[in-house]
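Appendix B. Raw example, untouched.
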Amino acid sequence: MKNLLLPLLAIFFLASVAIADDLPPRLDITLDRFTMWTRLPPEVSTATQGPDGRVWLAVRSDSTPTRDRFEALLQREFSEKMPQFRAPLLFEPNERIWFDAVVSHNNETQYTLFGYNGNTLIELSLNARMHLRPSAAFANEKAFFASLNGIHVYDGQQWSTRDVPPLPPNQNERVLPYRLFTEPDGKGVIAVPRQWKNPLLRWRDGNWTEFPLNDNQQTNATTASAAPRNDGIWLLRSNGLSFFNYQTNTLTPSPLFGKYRLQYVNLLLTLPNGSTLVAAKNVLGEGRNNDANGKPALLLQKRRSSIFHQE
């Protein structure tokens, strides 16, 4: 047995060395922190800064790597001051970083999620026909990924998948059925449907809850963006701004944002402190003129851009 084991170890070692020697050389790139703008070389498609301050450079590639070559390159770059690899999909607080990639393995091409913390590599093949990048979120020590075929959750030990209604056949290869947003307190995840005939999904305390969003208006409305709050979620969709309240299970189309009613919203996001920021082109606010009943009228104030903030 010992005589057989030594040749096998030698073969494995030589294969590892061969893969390492086949890796592309690192690009000669330096970023001067005293320079505001720096032109990146054409080999780099994007740059992403992680929570530790390091900048991850996504290096272009014309070929599909093998799974082993992908892992070897990730191991080489993971601890570099400026990794030259690909754009991260999700940063976990515990140093694990997630990526998505098309790799070849056992004579098959697989679209796969990879999570790596410097020691252990986690994998999940998405088995998707289209390589559409998942939406990702992190909450309560769990990583969430919404792909074309469900919402995949990794709890640090194992995977689970929440099935979701698919999009119509003419759309299911162009957009994701759901987009993920972390709640302000970091303990829950909201899955917002692309189409409003599908329910809003909320993961909280280990359970999924469905909220129907049919507001008897445009059931074919699509969602452009969302901003979670502790009591509900702001939803920017193709027919206007709405607010969904978790406690009352009600959807309010075009609600007042503070004392204003907003039109043509082009920015909606949740700030780190849990407050909401909105940018709108047109603003409806109380004017000095009264309507026919003597009440203050809502007058349209046309502006190029207005920023509104709500605690």
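End of appendix B.
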